[in-house]
Amino acid sequence: MKIKYSKIVYVFIGLLLINFLASKFYKRFDLTEDQRYTLSEATTSIVENIDEIITIKVYLQGNFPAEFKRLQTETKLHLEELKNINKKIQFRFINPEDIGQKLIDNGLEPSNLQIQENGKLSEIVIFPWAVVQYKNKTENVSLLKDIISNSQDQQLKSSIQNLEYAFANAIHKVSSEKSKKIAIIKGNGELNDISIADFLRTINQYYHLAPFTLDSVEKQPQKTLKSISNFDLAIIAKPTEKFSEEEKFTLDQFIMNGGKTLWLIDNVQAELDSLMNTGEALAYPRDLGLTDLFFNYGIRINHDLITDLYSSKIPLATGNVGNQTQFDTFSWQYFPLVNSQNNHAINNNIEAVSLKFTNSIDTLKNNIHKTVLLQSSPLSKPEGTPKIVSLNSIAQQENQQNYNDGDKSIAILLEGEFKSAYSSRVKPYNTNYKDNSTSTKMIVVADGDIIANEISKGQPLELGVDKWTNQRFGNKDFLLNAISYLLDDTGLINIRSKTIKIDFLDKQKAFEESSKWQLINIIFPLIFLALFGLIFNYYRRKIFQ
Questions:
Q1: How many CA atoms lie within 13 A of 21 on its CB side?
Q2: Helix, strand, or coil (residue 334)
């Protein structure tokens, strides 16, 4: 008897010990195939550095369809993972039904969704937003990616896939201070401030920005070079005037000293405004004086125009109704929509990028590693310049067989130790010259308008959104990723490369086969129970006969 009771005591003590150890040592295991609940090092680092309470309000509570319940569930699971790392993260889900107008006033726009249930379409309104609050800072987080070109299932997949980046990015914004400095190069006819206002407003949340005019190099070259060396990155956005040797040398030495550069270059003069006025315009090569600089770094921007059957649309007047001019939109082969092969963190999981009068780029052999980030579609071709570009081509039926010289490089990342373009050349001015750079990076895009937002009633619109069709393109995401990569910013960009596998129910098929599966779910259990009863009674009788 004593042995029996002693075993019970041992078991009881063992259970107490296991519970005590479990309370001290906590470990979660991600058994999913795509490791969707395993957080990246960048996210972990950001969350671990939170030193005060951070509150996250999620407005995904209430009655909505099963698909969006999944988004709610995935959001909750992700926030639980964040809280597991740092207990200072607190979150709660709120039903926005009674506070909808207040949320709208705070910039949280609702989403209208079409839902198919039992073969019928209905529309609901949800607020797919979260608000992150830390100290005196607040950041809104969109939980539903606005991807107009995709189906609702693809939109949900992209949204779930984007959760880690969305929250990590928001937490990083409210909890960190700016450190890196970006120079917006001026003085050579670059895009004016209102044309790049939306992008500057966005990156100003992360970095210190300042305009930097290269004109001063003419009188104070050494001081100009010293001043620009205080910046980490220089953005050259669609220059239209030729660079002097002193200006080129200053940028070259900025690169040799480890500075990063983002070149957004139009090597052909062609503008839609000129076409709209006359119906046709001459497209001709633009001499910026940068050919030798790029050639030395390992690329050549050609004086051509890419025409692509996969293109965005432009508005044209088609008639009048009363005193009102009527507009329709037409595909314009000189405005290509370019994709990537998702071969890099910069271009992974972004929408097609909308370009205007873009050029092709050739790569040259040297010791610099080159990665093509954007390229034209297979159904494209380059056209030489000078040439007349006419709007009449819109009415012509394009022969697909003529577009057989595609996959042209348009944006290229260059990484490595660069050799100065002024090696073995007379230097424009005396300075502490460097012939070779430390390891650095640059990105060259053969289209200056990639960064230009549209303007309506004198106000800048969001970059990448067509004001006529309201279609959203990947311009802003591409450029934000590019700058983040160039500046090695916290590793957040690598989170965008994360992909997960989500299977969705075929609603139409489920509706059509609903009766069949209902019968199966009702009849099969009954048949199984009947068989079990017959077999059980048969063996029972056999045993007791």
A1: 6
A2: strand
Among all chains, which residue has been given the structure tokens 């009788």? 541
479 Cβ neighbours under 8 A, 6+ residues apart: 199, 262, 450, 451, 463
The dihedral sign for the CA sequence 410, 292, 241, 247: positive
For the range 466-473, what are the long-range contacts, defined as Cβ-Cβ under 8 Å and sequence gap of 24 or more?
466/312, 466/313, 466/354, 468/313, 468/315, 468/327, 468/329, 469/313, 469/329, 470/148, 471/148, 471/149, 471/312, 472/146, 472/147, 472/148, 472/351, 473/312, 473/337, 473/351, 473/352, 473/353, 473/354
CB count in 10 Å sphere of residue 442: 23
Dihedral (CA of 91, 95, 98, 99) sign: positive
Q: CB 464: neighbour CB atoms within 10 A?
A: 24
Q: Is the dihedral of CA 54, 169, 416, 260 positive or negative?
A: negative
This prediction's pTM? 0.80
Cβ neighbourhood burial of 32 (10 Å; 0-12, 13-18, 19+)? exposed
Structure tokens at 456: 């309506």
Residue with tokens 């200053």: 250
Task: Note the residue count of the chain.
Answer: 545
Residues whose CB falls within 8 Å of the CB of residue 436, separated by 6 or more in sequence, listed in order: 256, 417, 418, 419, 420
**Burial call 178-204: b when 16+ CB within 10 Å, e when fewer:** eebbbbbbbbbebbeeebbbbbbeebe
Element (H, E) at 5: helix 2-24
Structure tokens at 146: 């606005």
Sign of the four-CA dihedral 389, 391, 394, 397:
negative
Q: Rounded to the nearest 5°, which phi and psi values hold at 61?
A: -135, 140
Residues facing 325 on adjacent strands: 320
Reading the chain (545 residues) residue by residue, the pLDDT tens digits are 555 567 777 777 878 887 777 666 556 666 666 666 678 888 888 899 898 999 999 998 877 776 678 888 889 999 999 998 999 999 999 998 888 888 888 888 887 776 666 556 667 778 889 999 998 889 999 888 765 545 667 777 778 888 888 899 899 888 888 889 999 999 999 999 999 999 999 999 889 999 999 988 989 999 999 999 999 999 999 999 999 999 999 999 999 999 999 999 999 999 888 888 888 899 999 999 999 999 999 999 999 999 999 999 888 877 776 677 777 888 899 999 998 776 788 988 788 999 999 999 999 999 999 999 999 999 999 999 999 999 888 878 888 888 989 899 999 999 999 999 999 899 999 999 999 999 999 999 999 999 999 998 899 999 998 888 888 899 998 999 999 899 976 577 777 666 666 555 555 555 566 677 677 778 878 888 888 888 877 777 777 66
